[in-house]
Amino acid sequence: MDKRKFLANYESLVRLKLWADRRLRALGQEEKGKAKGIGIWELDGRRALEFLSVSEPEYHMEQDQEFREILDEINSPKGREQSFLGNLKHCFRLSVAEELCLYLAVLPEMEGIYKKLFSWLNGNPKKTRPTLETAANVMGFNPLLRSTVREEMGERSPFVLYMMEPGWGQDREPFWDRELVLDPKIAEYLLGSQCPDKGLAGVSRTFTPEDQRESLPRSRYYEMLLHACHLCGLDRERESRLRKPVKEQRAVFLWGAMGCGKKELLRQLAAGTGKRILLLEADRVAEERKDLQEALRRGVREAVLTDSLLAVEHYESLKPEMEERFWEEMRFCPDPILVLSSEKPENKQGSEICRIPVHVENPSYEERRKIWGYYMEKYGLPTKEQNRLAAKFLFLPGQIKKAARHYQNSRQVLGEEKASLYESCFAQIRHQLYERATKINSGYTWNQLILPDSQKRLMRHICSQMENQYKVYEEWGFGRTVAYGKGVTVVFAGSPGTGKTMAAQILSKELDLELYKIDLSQMVSKYVGETEKNLASVFYEAELSNAILFFDEADSLFGRRTEVKSSNDRYANLETSYLLQRLEEYEGMTILATNYLKNIDDAFMRRMKYIIQFPFPDKEARTQIWKVTIPEKAPMGQDMDYDFLGERLELSGGSIKNIAVYAAFLAADKGCVIGMKEILEAARYEMQKTGKILLGKDLQQYGYLLEED
Q: How many C-alpha atoms does 466 have within 13 Å on its Cβ side?
């Protein structure tokens, strides 16, 4: 609190108190001469009159030149800086009558003796504040002034809305019998308190010009926001709307996805204009079960008192019936009004609200890189990952900040070696892919993937393209010449069990990206338009995290389009065409796995950047698969013959994995090591699933192992 300002305000209150005491004493002397009862409250009122500090028996306000001088001094530009009453009158354009009503209403807050005095003058022991009738008598109003006061103090006037307690005048009590009961915030303000409104605690925050703790370099949207604010009257005299609202309200709609940096722009606006910004969070008002209208009213009043811009966040959370009330409460708020929303504003025909939109788009690669650089320097993160993180995670500024802070905390708790910047990034991803897809965690390495060298080279090219997207499209400028199709689309074709899913997992691990296997049962719908809707949802959610989408058995969804012979054919072709469009728009990686490459539509094949064949493994490949499938730490028998298994058992990699796992459980049950006997028993069972019979005579020197059973 400013002590000098507090003392100056107190001095002005004392001077007004002397005037009020003289006038109340004169009015009290008149009341003494009237026939009154002798109730305790009346006696208390008469005793209170004797304690007033003025001894003049006769007093007439119209002859009080000193009173006029006091008001002129309080309401002068210099006086407004020292007197909170003068500032209230100036900010809310109060009349002299309203100003004096405010002062009379605050007297019981200054000294308790005034409650007894007013109850006597009101003629009602329950009314301890001045009624409008008593106030009019104290101020010596004639009939003309009384009619003016009645008009000025209507239910929707600024005086009633912002000065009086909530609900004042709604009990339908006769106008002149209403008590002047101040809102607690106004009473505290008049007595010198400069504390924020307690009614806004927990549902608001303030950005000040000095608040630079988290300020990023100005974004490209700052000038757009500043220009929009000027269009809404940022340079006009702010109090011009308080007594006579304009016909058309102007509001700046700052809209964009959550976390795109709207509040950061408010912080920059506060610093750039030197204006405080009071941000009211509409969604938290609902959480705290507070009345939105009352919160808005308090917000408008606080913005006017502190010469702040008023901003309201989460406008989209307002129900339609609340929007009209919202703008009704905003009618006295000085322009510009700042509205933050995640949805684009609608300019409704015939509306009295002019919405000036400022769309904050998701940051580009270069903007993400700068934001990562800022927070890396701020939190002491390794800067070598700056470009890679900016290209890999299509994060909003808010997500980048949270990821950097999460990593800093993890490093303090887990240590430098265990903390992972990528894990901190994944912790910020919020999507609903799990509703229509299954996340696949990867533990495989390149050594475990047994493929011909040419196919492995293609897979490494895929990783290289994903890693260097930012360099080619952004630094080298190809992004301006390639309008769409920037993503990486891959087809894995081959028989079941040849390693397609494993390869997808390896790419996921190599690129540090999440892998989601799409559940086709959640995609395809018999209802027209539902399949496209489901696909749109999947791609939208994937864009939030740049996840790898893995369509297994892709030919069932990406099948060939057919000649239109019925409405079913037409809608099926529409689904395929829509999927083609979304594949080209998606800038991440999409993997299609199929057992029947020829069944996929030719249009898809032309758009695929990589097609990798997964051949059925030959003898050498099968031998390698056997060796990498069984872990080194597993207890192996001396008779294990990998060359024999690779030569005699013509199986895919998936079948070999099943046999190895089954054999391990057989050995664990027997309490022995994994030997050829357990492997061959598991192989016989695995081959039975496909209708094949493994006989002892087919196993040459190891045939006796099965004949023992």
A: 27
Instruction: For the chain, give the number of residues.
Output: 709
Spell 21-42 as b/e; 16+ CB within 10 A means b: bbbbbbbbeebeeeeeeeeebb
Closest Cα partner for 308 from 262, 352, 265, 275?
A: 275
pLDDT at 340: 93
Phi then psi for residue 647, to 5 deg, are -80, -45
Mode of pairing for the β-strands spanning 337-341 and 515-518? unpaired
CA separation for the pair 25, 47 (Å, rounded): 11
| Separation of alpha carbons 500 and 495, rounded Å | 9
Q: Does the structure show a pLDDT above 60 at 183?
A: yes
Q: Do residues 552 and 593 make contact, with C-beta atoms less than 8 angstroms apart?
A: yes
Rounded mean pLDDT, 250-272: 87
Alpha carbon distance 247, 53 (integer Å):
49
In tens, the pLDDT along 331-385 reads 888 778 899 998 888 766 556 778 889 998 888 888 888 888 888 888 888 888 8
Tokens 């297994």 belong to residue: 552
What pLDDT sits at residue 708?
57
Torsion sign across C-alpha atoms 553, 554, 555, 557? positive
Helices then strands, each counted (H, E), the chain:
31, 12
Partners of residue 254 on adjacent β-strands: 340, 358
- Determine the pLDDT at residue 661: 92
Mean residue pLDDT across the chain: 80
CA pair distance 295, 194, nearest whole angstrom? 19
d(C-alpha 595, C-alpha 25), whole Å? 101
